[in-house]
Amino acid sequence: MKKILIATFCLFSIILTSCSESEYKIRVPVDPSKATLLKPANNSECLEVDAVKFEWIKSDNTDSYSIEIINLLSNDTVTKASTTNLKEVTLTKGQPYSWKVISSNNITSKVAKSESWKFYLSGEALFNHAPFPAEIVAPSYESSVSKGAIELSWTSSDVDTNDTHTFDIYLDKTDASTVNTSGHSTTKKSVTLTDPGIYYWKIITKDNHGNSSDSGVFKFTVTD
């Protein structure tokens, strides 16, 4: 009788342990991974279509996706949901856009964001396109830097890979309406700022065909 009780107790302990481990595994949240973008390709021209087909590689631990598309001229944002790795979206033609995919699942509130790619959706056939708006690198938005020599930097891209570009740098303490430098030829510029406070700046990118784009206004703080 004693042996039977011992065996029963051991079996009951094994069942409890097994159930506990199984329950623990089920409850552990697994974060989604980042999606890998495929189409439209980065810095490409999407030829005139009724709807743009967005495509990406499925990410691990993901139940659904959110596609975020931003018009780079108006900053208007379109967000579409999908449970597959493909989505067609109708957009205004003749405009530059950026897009990214946000992965999520049903067991955690955490999400994973893909890289952000840019493309130009053509309308009527164009001989040449405006460059994409410059992307500000440094000083980053609402960052703080010490007074003195400060390096402004940004990135530039264009569907027309053979175009050349110049940059007008606007910088002041009110609304970035004052030109600091015109026709700058590189994506870096050192300026000397000795007056502490908040500064506003933007980059106007121009190509050799007379087209231009506006980065939008960014700001940073100069400290003592």
CATH superfamily of the largest domain: Immunoglobulins
Q: How would the global form be characterised?
A: flat
Terminal CA distance:
85 Å
Question: On the 0-100 scale, what is the average pLDDT?
Answer: 87
Remind me, CATH topology of the largest domain? Answer: Immunoglobulin-like
Task: Work out the helicity level.
Answer: 10-25%
Q: Can you tell me the number of structural domains?
A: 2
Structural class: mainly beta
Low confidence ranges: 5-12, 18-25
**What fraction of the residues are assigned to beta strands by DSSP?**
over 45%
Top CATH class of the largest domain:
Mainly Beta
Second CATH tier, the architecture of the largest domain: Sandwich
- Give the number of helices: 1
Radius of gyration: 26 Å
Please give the largest β-sheet. Answer: 6 strands, mixed
Element order: H for helix, E for strand: HEEEEEEEEEEEEEEEEEE
Number of strands: 18
What key attributes describe this structure?
18 strands; 2 domains; mainly beta; Immunoglobulin-like; flat; 1 helix; 224 residues; six-stranded mixed beta sheet
Secondary-structure blueprint of this entry?
Layout: H1 2-27, E1 36-39, E2 44-46, E3 52-57, E4 64-71, E5 77-82, E6 86-89, E7 95-104, E8 112-113, E9 117-121, E10 135-138, E11 143-146, E12 148-155, E13 165-172, E14 179-184, E15 188-193, E16 197-207, E17 212-214, E18 218-223
Parallel strand pairs: 2-9, 11-18
Antiparallel strand pairs: 1-3, 3-6, 4-5, 4-7, 7-8, 7-9, 10-12, 12-15, 13-14, 13-16, 16-17, 16-18
How would you describe what is shown here?
12% of the residues lie in helices and 46% in strands. The chain is mostly beta strands and 224 residues long. The protein has two domains: 36-121, Immunoglobulin-like (Sandwich), CATH 2.60.40.10; 135-223, Immunoglobulins (Immunoglobulin-like, Sandwich). Strands 2, 4, 5, 7, 8 and 9 form a six-stranded mixed sheet that branches. Strands 11, 13, 14, 16, 17 and 18 form a six-stranded mixed sheet that branches. Strands 1-3-6 form a three-stranded antiparallel sheet, with no helix packed on it. The radius of gyration is 26 Å and the shape is flat. The relative contact order is 0.15. The model is unreliable at 5-12 and 18-25 (pLDDT under 50).
